Amino acid sequence: MKQTERLKREKRRRCFAIILWSIVNISLFAAVGYKIYRKEWKQYWNPAVDDKCKDNFTVYGQENLAVSDELLYYCDLNRENALCSYHLKTKEVKVLKQKAGALKKTGSGIYYITDSVVYRISGEELCFVCNIPAEGFSFIDFYESVVYWTAKERGTDETKTDSPVLQHSIYMQNVAGENEPRLLSRSEGMVYDVVLAQQNIYVMTRNGVYELESATGEMTKLSDSYSTKFYSDGIHILFEGFDEEGKSYYEILRNGQIKKQTVHTGSVAAVFQEYLYYIDDDGVKVCDLKAVIVQEELLFEMPGRPWYRMEVCEQGIILRDSVLNHIWFCDLNSGVTDCMILQ
User: Model's pTM, two decimal places?
Assistant: First the structure.
């Protein structure tokens, strides 16, 4: 009997020793792996904002890409989040601004926003546009001396004994003179994106897509579809929407009508020369926005890499992946895709 008890105790000790040994080895493996691959892991699990980690983007909008003529503009993580240009033919890289900021391409130009200052990018020069007198703002656009932006502000809900609420506001300001900012719209609903196109303002909220009248501040609902981002070249404005067939891309026409342009959507999309390009599980697809009926075709297959941002130009498609933030070039004729800028 005693021998049996000893055997049981010995077996328990051995099991405990094996479990302990396994835990120690797994911990050591994880620690060594994190030390070696910490950059990749950080960017995979959190490719968004982390102002204490130089491996990640520190400003929302820093991940964007923009192309003008033969220059690609991007924020380079290897140069402490500097704004850089990359010549698509010579492959020359130049640092344009050694300061973290948001890069944004609109229908009126390409802008770089750092702190409260808005710059317009012209070639390899940054031209001062204006200061925005707000904290935590998101730049929308600059058109005919008027700057537009959104801001998150603390307010109070009078219906609930003045309890604090987060309000989403849209402002405009004529910077030619001593004009004060003018509030266009304010709500407690989340504002995901705002675009200015053909002097019209379109707002994306959790409740749908709206057109905002700048003179009166009146909001007119155009669609009930839930989406988070517009795709626009300053003329065409598209967004993701839903119907009985699933998710598709829809265009807002000048008369306010909504037109279905595709029967699929992708992980990334961009508008270029009256065509919508997007990437789904099959590959790169293109849609002719001038066509009367839905007209989309598969250009070529593509590796199933998780893409973050997409820009289309005369030379081809430029992509940023969402794992390591590398920048890739895809030839529109052959479909060959190569990494052009390592991050």
Answer: 0.80
